[in-house]
């Protein structure tokens, strides 16, 4: 008789930060995977916010105002981080050192140098840190990537990636927004990163970026709009727009392949019906029928990504959305900023130690680096 492996133990999970993204994204994801993961602790420096979250999450969730105290007392298997971006590197490294895996909101950190610090902590601990890029995990995205990778749509040729959102002055009254030291950048880092991460996920390695950025409306340290032209290793060319100046808000990724166009239009999340395939005139109807969306309709969500991470945890393998895969998206952001601020093309792999854009997205450029506050 074949021997069956025991079911993996239910993972002990802690959350760090108890604001809207944790309550509205991570908590529902944990409830959807309640048979595989249970929330045991929450951390927040704001005692009132922590109390409100514990009332929502359940009385058996322990509350802490110190991350270190929580890690020492609870020894969680997985830590979900939903704090402001400037805290991500330090909190991720602390969790890794305690032996916990991490799923952190984007951006995982504010520079390539900080990302490499996290990679070193992974290597030392044997644990892994993933960044939340939930748009990769919807069934429509999984299906599109598979079709492109297998050549079913023909060679990718031209692509467009659009994050055109709207943020008013009140949005930037939150002290950490719009500042390099606390947010890491403008819509290139904080908004459009989800869409161009999906574009990179669909098309693979990029080779060259040319870009522009500006402050057209908001009085911020970082940009409020950026645009880029991108050449991919497979020869495809793409445009990328990241804006918080757009009254008609939309998120869009379109890839024109030799045999079909695949286009996703949504705002903050997608389902199968948001993906449209348009065959080229020469494509036989029977072939195009195979491109229809899969029977299962899995929305892009924290729930879908958490499931993929738990699968990896069960197998003891590196989870998706981590390591060199996730670093490539942050490297793309750094390259876009360098290309925009220097006015010259930037190639993949050129930003390393000693390059000012390795240490900070503004690269100490005189027109963009933070000014001393009086």
From TrEMBL:
Coiled coil stretches, renumbered: none
Domain called GFO/IDH/MocA-like oxidoreductase: residue spans: 143-262
Domain Gfo/Idh/MocA-like oxidoreductase N-terminal: 12-131
GO MF annotations, alphabetized: nucleotide binding
One Pfam family recorded for the sequence: GFO_IDH_MocA
InterPro entries: Gfo/Idh/MocA-like_OxRdtase_N, Gfo/Idh/MocA_Oxidoreductase, GFO_IDH_MocA-like_dom, NAD(P)-bd_dom_sf
Name of this chain's protein: Oxidoreductase
